[in-house]
């Protein structure tokens, strides 16, 4: 899917779907915590499950696999093993930090505030990656590496004289 629509567009779709569904969960949680809005919660009691499912679909659409696709495309072969190990460790550290901070965020901001912060983080990731990420779909690994290292392309010989041997 990423190759057909491009990395940046895929990130935008995935991040916006996640942001909207997280914001919707925040609205639902706000209505749950606000006196006088309980009728909304009772009437739409199916909404949290639907919005969590949409969040997960949005995440799996692009964000879950993006790091691993980009490691395969952007990182030079000489350091790819080290960088992929480092990125896996960084992902696990940020996941742990998010899990550890969730309880404190809920205590300080409420569930609705926490979900709105997560929604804002999704939008920040969309903007940041769209500004900084190089579009790699439709390009060869050689072209991508040259672009990332700012090297001039080598001339490709018209005929390989040694192909016969």
UniProtKB/TrEMBL annotation:
<keyword id="KW-0812">Transmembrane</keyword>
<feature type="domain" description="Major facilitator superfamily (MFS) profile">
    <location>
        <begin position="1"/>
        <end position="137"/>
    </location>
</feature>
<dbReference type="GO" id="GO:0022857">
    <property type="term" value="F:transmembrane transporter activity"/>
</dbReference>
<keyword id="KW-0472">Membrane</keyword>
<dbReference type="InterPro" id="IPR005828">
    <property type="entry name" value="MFS_sugar_transport-like"/>
</dbReference>
<protein>
    <recommendedName>
        <fullName>Major facilitator superfamily (MFS) profile domain-containing protein</fullName>
    </recommendedName>
</protein>
<dbReference type="InterPro" id="IPR020846">
    <property type="entry name" value="MFS_dom"/>
</dbReference>
<keyword id="KW-1133">Transmembrane helix</keyword>
<dbReference type="GO" id="GO:0016020">
    <property type="term" value="C:membrane"/>
</dbReference>
<dbReference type="InterPro" id="IPR036259">
    <property type="entry name" value="MFS_trans_sf"/>
</dbReference>
<dbReference type="Pfam" id="PF00083">
    <property type="entry name" value="Sugar_tr"/>
</dbReference>
<feature type="transmembrane region" description="Helical">
    <location>
        <begin position="115"/>
        <end position="133"/>
    </location>
</feature>
<dbReference type="InterPro" id="IPR050549">
    <property type="entry name" value="MFS_Trehalose_Transporter"/>
</dbReference>
<feature type="transmembrane region" description="Helical">
    <location>
        <begin position="50"/>
        <end position="71"/>
    </location>
</feature>
């Amino acid at each position: 899917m990423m190759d057909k629509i491009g990395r940046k567009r895929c990130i935008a779709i995935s991040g916006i779907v996640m942001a909207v569904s997280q914001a919707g969960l925040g609205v639902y949680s706000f209505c749950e915590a606000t006196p006088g809005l309980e009728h909304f919660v009772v009437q739409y009691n199916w909404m949290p499950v639907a919005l969590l499912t949409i969040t997960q679909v949005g995440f799996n659409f692009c964000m879950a696999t993006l790091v691993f696709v980009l490691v395969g495309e952007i990182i030079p072969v000489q350091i790819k093993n080290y960088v992929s190990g480092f990125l896996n460790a960084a992902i696990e550290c940020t996941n742990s930090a998010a899990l550890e901070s969730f309880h404190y965020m809920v205590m300080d901001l409420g569930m609705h505030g926490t979900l709105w912060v997560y929604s804002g983080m999704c939008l920040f990731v969309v903007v940041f990656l769209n500004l900084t990420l190089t579009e790699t779909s439709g390009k060869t690994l050689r072209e991508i590496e040259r672009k990332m290292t700012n090297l001039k392309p080598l001339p490709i010989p018209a005929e390989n004289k040694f192909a016969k041997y």
